[in-house]
């Protein structure tokens, strides 16, 4: 029964983390859309650079949100563990989160126990948000190209 309680808690943390990440992403997407509408005359290469920089920074923030959740959950052994690394600093959690979020998965750090579920949820979230970002980047480039004519 105690394991089930931790399972439910992990799901709540996962839902909370995903909601925070999607909320951050949606705010940035809305800001990018509004800034495009307000700066029609200032299009071209600098706009593409700014959009891509903003999207990458947004993903870095979202990776930090997941890294914080890993650090908090893994402080309690009931959530499981990560093997293959000593996890001596927050940068280790950032590294693990970034490889999961991007679905790169080097495999040098392996999740065990309940944390495996949270890891898979981060992969799904990262894959979805990266796809969203790429569609926005494509639409920005398309908008710029259509206004050149």
Question: Could you explain the architecture of this structure?
Answer:
The protein is mostly helical and 149 residues long. It has one domain: Helix Hairpins, CATH 1.10.287.70. 76% of the residues lie in helices and 4% in strands. The chain has four helices and two strands; from the N terminus they run ααβαβα. It has a two-stranded antiparallel ribbon. The longest helix is centred in the first third of the chain and has 37 residues. It starts with a helix and ends with a helix. The model has no long low-confidence stretch (mean pLDDT 91).
Outline the secondary-structure elements:
Layout (H helix, E strand, L loop, with lengths): L1 H37 L6 H30 L6 E3 L6 H12 L8 E3 L2 H34 L1
Antiparallel strand pairs: 1-2
Overview in brief:
By secondary structure, the chain is mainly alpha-helical. The chain contains four helices and two strands, in the order H-H-E-H-E-H. The N and C termini lie far apart (66 Å).
> How many distinct beta strands?
2
CATH architecture: Orthogonal Bundle
Biggest sheet features: 2 strands, antiparallel
SSE string: HHEHEH
Overall SS class? mainly alpha
Mean pLDDT: 91
CATH class: Mainly Alpha
Ranges where pLDDT stays below 50 over 5 or more residues in a row are none
| β-sheet strand percentage | under 5%
**Can you tell me the number of structural domains?**
1
Helix content: over 70%
Distance between the termini: 66 Å
Walk across the major sheet and give the strand order.
Answer: 1-2
Gyration radius, to the nearest Å? 18 Å
Note the total helix count.
4
